[in-house]
Amino acid sequence: MCGIIGYIGSKPATPFLIEGLKRMEYRGYDSAGVAVCGGAEIITRRAAGKIARLEAAIAARPVVGTCGVGHTRWATHGPPTERNAHPHLSGDDSVAVVHNGIIENANALRALLREKGYEFRSDTDTEVLAHLVQELYEGSLEAAVLSALREVEGTYGLAVVSSRDPGKIVAARKGSPLLIGIGDGEHFIASDASAILAHTRQVVYLDEGDVAVITADGYRVLDVNALPLSRRVDQIDWDLGAIERGGYAHFMLKEIFEQPQTVENAMRGRVIADDGTSKLGGLNLSHDQLMAIDNIIITACGTSWHSALIGEMMIEELCRIPVEVEYASEFRYRNPIVTDRTLCIVISQSGETADTLAAMREAKRRGARTLGLVNVVGSTIAREDDGGIYLHAGPEIGVASTKAFTSQVVALALFTLKLARKRGLSVTRGIEIAHALAALPDQIRDVLSRADQMEQIAEEFKRAPNFLYLGRGVNFPVALEGALKLKEISYIHAEGYPAAEMKHGPIALIDEMMPVVFVAPHDAVFEKVVSNVQEVKARKGNIIAITSRDEPALAGLVDYEFRIPETVDLLTPVLASIPLQLLAYYIAVKRGANVDQPRNLAKSVTVE
Ligand code: M6R
């Protein structure tokens, strides 16, 4: 959600902070700020709006110093104004704090601090931390931070500097990711590896409850009792190119066009074509454990929840194991039936979504084994799950998830193949699916080579106020995903529905003004979809159809058609979702929307 960056070394800190903030702007972009230790004081600059406005503020009044912290915000407490932008200063301006997460007992702490004479200058929960650290300071910043954290309930990733104990940044993590970047005579703290990748690949991911003291020459990691902890140094294995637009107008477009490669990466070394199965190194499930699974729960949010629905159909169809798909935010607060023979699959691009993480912990607490399908290497879900399948899609920067979705579907297919072959799927059927998987990258290339067709369709519909997306079977979640893509980046109201369910309500909306997107490849339910197309046409709806062959049954019914290659039914979502990504993208661009940073959204939702 928000982004944190800190630098300490021998060079001016501000350029590092600004660069890091720009790299993380996709995480939150309603206000930003920096605090730099310059001599005996802390100097802050903050601005509402994009990082460019902060840059302008700094250019007008430069801040100089070799140690500092910065933050880009997605508002939770208080509107996105300059006074609410981080860093927040303590009453005597000696402490500056940047914080991701939510301090749940902020009201109680605020009342206590007011009694002691502290005045509050923002509406944020974070400001209480700054005052608390000042209040508890007795000569060591890390000791004051540790004492403050003992008073705090809630979640945090935070970085603190103080003019009373200069030459260090103190960082702490509980529920919000942070990593230390190790440089030569300089160190970084960041919530996102992309913020520091230009300067170092060596990182230490902090664990829950860790407190770190970072200086120019080194770092120490402490537990809550200030006892030293040892943490592994990891190597970031992707390049700067992965987080740059590389000639594309937007990250979203780049990520849509990366899909032949990302789908291939998700499968690399994992498909055993001859045996119609897969090899998944991180699964951590023995043959006996796979055979013992009684039921599967898949939990996720947003786009990842849509891929979960596809996974449900794949697993039930091929493995004959009951599967339930749960919104992570609902699962964690009800009383689900979980046993030690339940496998809980957790799907998350970021691996940091607060609800999904909490749902995974809840499933574990109830005795389930957990399997994470995660894109971001080293993320919290990837570190806490019992086994995992990395998506290997590379960094996804566009707020609208695209390449992660197709990789999730592929990862689910790989897992299904493995489980199904153990639980009775014939080798012939397994081989058929394995070959279909292998064909996907070229088929995606084919879809993308005709992107201009979707652009033309977008031109026709760019002013539509509403859209309906309909599909059946595995393509019902594709309809949901198409509608989500459109609404989040173009702000057009869009709904996804099972095609036949439409006549139980949404059909009332259909007239000549309503574009209806049918996801209608030639699969087992195609004939049924044709009936639904007829129902819409009879009410003069404007039909855009995603089809997979020349269909006489659709002649005269469909206004616009986009053809995808044929594959096995269960994999059609990989191909059918891509034209819908393109449709949403081109409509949003034609409406002048900020595609990569849509209003009110953030890439990784690390609050409840
Ligand atoms: O990182 P995650 O996959 O856990 O994120 C889940 C959702 O927040 C995410 O898919 C969101 O719905 C996207 N904006 C969809 O494009």
Structural notes for this entry:
With 608 residues, this protein is an alpha/beta fold. It has 3 domains: 234 residues, Glutamine Phosphoribosylpyrophosphate, subunit 1, domain 1 (4-Layer Sandwich), CATH 3.60.20.10; 202 residues, 3-Layer(aba) Sandwich (Rossmann fold); 136 residues, Glucose-6-phosphate isomerase like protein, domain 1 (Rossmann fold, 3-Layer(aba) Sandwich). It is 36% helix and 22% strand. It contains 18 helices and 27 strands. Strands 3-2-4-1-10-9-11-15 form an 8-stranded antiparallel beta sheet, covered by helices on one side. Strands 5-6-7-8-12-13-14 form a 7-stranded antiparallel beta sheet, with helices on one face. Strand 9 and strand 10 form a beta hairpin. Helix 3 crosses helix 4 and helix 13 runs antiparallel to helix 14. The longest helix has 23 residues. It is globular. The termini are close together. The mean pLDDT is 95. The site of 5-amino-5-deoxy-1-O-phosphono-D-mannitol (M6R) has 17 residues, from helix 9 and helix 16. 5-amino-5-deoxy-1-O-phosphono-D-mannitol (M6R) binds next to helix 9 and helix 16.
